């Protein structure tokens, strides 16, 4: 046996393996860019604690002086298509590095790191002051809470604008539906008269069943029809635990929160749905029930259901 040849072959194989490892390590490192942002721990893709990447480490941002213009810049940098609809709050749940404090954005910057601030790692706060944002990539029927992360005045999106909801005959079931639609806790959901809204009053006399998929799918007087003023704007408190009802849907193992294998909840367990006769109309109904824009592709989910386009749920 030619030992030199065997040694040469093993050496070449070893070098190729090392090159592959280095390539993937390098590729992983460079995917995180200086000043890149991410949102952590939120109920949806565009909600959560703000973290910024600096010197190879993710770190949080303090809420000291954090305001609307700062939130606008965060949502713009994250690619929200509706970054003027923003909400910020104290997340207070981070760990590790705290990178920024005293932010002073004008609102026109394209990246948070280009805003005025106290300097990297120069702060007088702890993780109890970590700030979070909610970027509303809004579509008709979407909800938001004004005043807190899980409690505040309830607003609904319709015809390209946010508006309030009257408290006339508002019920606990309505509050449960609103909290579930927002992806928040709902077993101890409650409602109250928040008032102090402005602009449109979109809904009045809302009447939901406990398992409705969204507040806009409940009975009401009609969009913009009401007999109340902003002193009667309703608010909700989303407390307790998370609930799952028969017929609820979820997407599993997708590349993003908006795609994946379709599963339905029945008899206290999650199960899949066969693709026999499943078509684009069924996919759109599923997306509508999941509160996503109905632009689904059948190939990304599988199911068997006989639906027509106006159905609100599978």
Automatic annotation (TrEMBL):
Q: Which UniProt keywords apply?
A: Disulfide bond, Glycoprotein, Repeat, Signal
Instruction: Give each disulfide bond as a residue pair.
Output: 105-115, 208-218
**Domain SRCR positions:** 37-136, 143-239, 249-290
Record keyword Isomerase present: no
User: In the UniProt record, which is one GO cellular component term?
Assistant: membrane
User: Known InterPro entries for this protein?
Assistant: SRCR, SRCR-like_dom_sf
Q: What is this protein called?
A: SRCR domain-containing protein
What is the native source organism of this protein? Mytilus galloprovincialis
